[in-house]
Amino acid sequence: MRKGLEEIPATMFSDEKIASLTSQVQINKTQKKSIQKWKSILDGDISLAGNPNLQETHTRTIFANTILHEVLGYPENELREEENNTDYSWIPKSNNHGILFELKSRNKGLNAYQHYRGAGQETPIQQAITYIEKNSELDYAIVTDFERFVLIT
User: Fold this and answer.
1) How confident is the model at residue 6 (pLDDT cuts 50, 70, 90)?
2) Per-residue confidence band for 16, with pLDDT thresholds at 50, 70 and 90
3) Which H, E and C letters describe 71-110, residue by residue?
4) What is the enclosing helix (H) or strand (E) of 21?
5) Residue 85 and residue 131 in contact, taking contact as beta carbons nearer than 8 Å
6) What is the DSSP letter of 141?
7) Tell me: the pLDDT tens digits for 17-74?
8) How far lies 106's CA from each of 32, 41, 66, 75, 136, in Å?
């Protein structure tokens, strides 16, 4: 098990550091439109199958298409779904330093106890760590409830 897992405060980077790290980032029209769409979903302006709580099963594909593909640029045909028990993963052609995306229902609590049977799945974060440990192609994970995002390295 990885040691030293702790929540990173929102103030990890100063405004100046964020500006420096993102100065070369260009957001295109598709990304802007997709970000607005996602914000509307979170705000409840767009209903997803009549489910305002953003349950995992109802939003997986929309999240993958909107955030992973359109905003972050992961190639749609390279995103792996439900492979090795992960919701989504992307592994580069080098077969190392991949990332998994573990999706949970909105406001579930990313550190909340889950009622799964297997060891290493006590919380969503622990579940992602367990998947990384079991898959040598994965080095990173993002665990999300569609509003909060936790990066695990």
Assistant:
1) very low
2) confident
3) HCCCCHHHCEECCCCCCEEECCCCCCCEEEEEECCCCCCC
4) helix 15-22
5) yes
6) E
7) 888 888 888 999 999 999 998 888 877 766 554 555 555 566 788 889 899 999 999 9
8) 23, 12, 16, 25, 29
- CB neighbours (10 Å) of residue 70? 19
- Separation between Cα atoms, residue 65 and residue 46, nearest integer Å: 16
Name every residue whose Cβ is closer than 8 Å to that of residue 81 and which is 6 or more positions away in sequence. 60, 64, 87, 88
Task: Assess contact for 101 and 86: CB atoms under 8 A.
Answer: yes
Q: What are the structure tokens assigned to 10, written together?
A: 């929102």
Q: Which of 46, 56, 33 is nearest to 106 (CA)?
A: 56
Answer for the pair 147, 114: CB distance below 8 angstroms, yes or no.
no
Query: Which helix (DSSP H) or strand (DSSP E) does residue 11 occupy?
Result: none
Q: Are 86 and 80 in contact (CB under 8 A)?
A: yes
- Cα distance between residue 96 and residue 136, in whole Å: 7
Beta bridge partners of 142: 101, 151
Q: Model's pTM, two decimal places?
A: 0.76
Look up residue 8 and give its two tokens.
């990173």
